[in-house]
Amino acid sequence: MSIQYRDIEFTPVQAGSVFLGTEKGGWMYGSQRPRHEVQCPEFYVMKSVLSQSQLQTLLELDETEIILSGDRLIQICTELSERFESFEYGLDSSKSWEVRCPSEGEWRHAHEQVQLELEAKKIEILADGVSDNYRGAMMDGRPRSFTGIGPMANHRTAIETHPNQKGITALSSAPMDRELSGMVARLVITPVREGEAIRVPLNADFSSNIRGEIFWTFLLGVIPSFAIPIARGMGGYVTSGWANLLFGGLCAGFVTGAFWRPRRPTVSFDEVKNSAPSGRRD
Fold first, then answer.
1. SS3 276
2. pLDDT exceeding 90 applies to what percent of the chain?
3. What local confidence, expressed as pLDDT, does residue 233 receive?
4. Residue 191 burial (CB count, 10 A)
5. Same domain membership, residue 261 and residue 161
6. Is 196 within the bounds of a domain?
7. Residue 123 within a domain
């Protein structure tokens, strides 16, 4: 059953799993790896983003067009969380509940279940900090904090919609230290995760990746580089020009790695939960 809180409708999303990232092995997909499972508890989500009238009410502003900023979004989430009483809505009062933007896992899971409404040319703010890839990502749906240093600390992960094609989205980032036209937000009512987070392992099997890269570089680059002149009856060039053939083969093998390598394994929630903290995953 939906929840009406401060004249905002929140739709229930059943507990379940969603998979983020890709299994593709090419280097161009490195920022989208590893593919991993995120298990979300039951929570509630706005199907549409906050409207101008809702922003005016929540921020107590009379501006004709309110442009979101990080400070305004924090103000909204803080106020709504502090005033939210779970027992008034029949929720489990043994849990602590908060109102905030969804994490990427919650957003994807909700979109699969209830089909969130998306507007073209919009940047929807999520609760996660920005990151280079999914190493260290949360697997229980809680937001991921930014762990680096520098100006990206003032950015958040965002869902950006295609300007023309409906329903097409891409993962991007948005600044939270200034107003940005086209920036929107939706909220979730979600239980606060207690205890230590289940995370995607930080380290891959580096030695295995190196061995695999050497193998595929030779198979797809070096071996064809020598085999082609032999097949064309130019065996003498293999002896005299072996250095050129080796260099060309290495370059060709290197380039293929940008687009194709064998699929990487998916990291499952139970696998990480039941493994030692030092376990390594690719």
1. coil
2. 74
3. 85
4. 19
5. no
6. no
7. yes
Bond before 34 cis per omega within 30 degrees: yes
**Banded pLDDT at 214 (limits 50, 70, 90):** very high
> What is the rounded distance in angstroms from the CA atom of residue 78 to the CA atom of residue 250?
55
Q: Is 94 left (phi over 0), alpha (psi -120 to 50) or beta?
A: alpha
Provide the residue range defining the domain that includes 252: 206-266
186 and 211 within one domain = no
Domain check: are 177 and 216 in the same one?
no
Tally the domains of the chain: 2
247 to 26, 218, 254: CA distances (angstroms): 21, 11, 10
Band the pLDDT of 116: cuts 50, 70, 90.
very high
Q: Which of 218, 38, 74, 32 is nearest to 226 (CA)?
A: 218
Q: What is the pTM of this model?
A: 0.89
Average pLDDT, the chain: 91
- Asked if 58 and 26 sit in the same domain, the reply is yes
User: What is the Cα–Cα distance from 208 to 204, expressed in whole angstroms?
Assistant: 9
DSSP-assigned beta bridge partners for residue 39: 17
